Amino acid sequence: MASTKDILNAQRFNRARLMTAFQSGMPEGRELTPTRPWGGLIGGIILTILLFGVAWVSTLFAPSLPANWEHGSLITDENTGARYVSIEGTLHPVNNASSAHLMFPGNLKIVSAGSEALTEASIGPEVGIAGAPDQLPTPESVADPTLLTCTATGGGPWTGVNTGAWEEPEDRAVHVIVDGQSYLVAGGYRYPIGDDVHSPEQILTALGQQVEAPMQANATWLNVFPQGEPLVSLTIPGLGEPAGSMTGVGDDVAVGTLLEVSDTANEGTIYVVHQGGQIERMTPVMIQLYAIGDGAIYSDPLPITSQELSQLELIDGSTRGTWPEEIRGMLEEGETPCAYLDTESAQGQVRFVVGNDIPSTSAMMVDVAPQSGAIIRTRADSSLGYTHLIDESGTMFTVNPAADTLAALGLSEADDLTVGPEWRDLFYAGPSLSTTQAWATVPEESRGEQ
Question: What's the rounded Cα separation, in Å, for the pair 161 and 368?
């Protein structure tokens, strides 16, 4: 009979066989010795390491702001298009790109980030110069700008920057009226017409032009032309007084006498005698307006040869120096009178031209070629005034100090064009631009080190 010890050993043996069968799962009832559970533990550890690695790698691709964004960056939200300028680790919504360039001249970093990445930074108050340009002209477009301004009956001036076509008037003029005053625009001047003695119609008739109703012009456009001497009858100082002896003319020549070259070299050229026996060449306009005044008594010139003329003292342009040389006709109906700024002249000389396909507008209008603009410096009497930037919208901004401000915007003061102060009234008025103005929009406690 089995002892108690034998029974216990048999039970342990059966339990071991049963556990082995469940753990091995091998066919044909093969029994295996239980193994230690290290394989499962090591596999779990490896799986855990892999999960942590994937999580770490995923952080590398998570949305985030670029390195060194904290100060001096213009950051655009890729999702919304909103723009921010970074100042001392804070993002400030900025009105326009120009303000950001003015705050950090020469070293502004331009980057973009997603909306999710921007949430990691604090947002400050809005900064920037309100109304400053967002789209700046290219340096190439301001290097050699063209300015053209035109008027139409009863309408506001149309002004084009680097746009608009024109042609020469071929010594023609246009008769306009502004605030009841008649003007003749010709060459590069506006001339008041008539006085208490002769009406504008009489002056036009004397100039050989057909009298028609004048164009109602815009005063802003007209003022672009400097005012010339009024077109009235021409009077020679000391008219009728003795001029003394003149070689080839006679011993008793009166001031105001006309001399006409009779030989082939300069045939038909007419001169008038001044006090002291000096002579001055008469233009066709001078001759026409001399004939309707006191000079009419000397309307028949005396003949003189080129040889005799060479022995006389000639003065140049002392009488009515701004008058046009000749008026050969008037603009026809439908033609558009314009002022063109001649950029080849040092002081920006204005020329009267005829516009082609110019838009008709009832109010002031400015057209600027795309991504274009101009830098102009206005004259103030005999000195130079402020420098202005004209952007693609036709808005004019005063830049002061000019050199530093333009450099911050990627432009150069060397490209400025000198114009009369009247040109300022042809553009929409914008705010002044400068680094100081830009930083003045930032709260003092947010500025840090500028």
Answer: 5
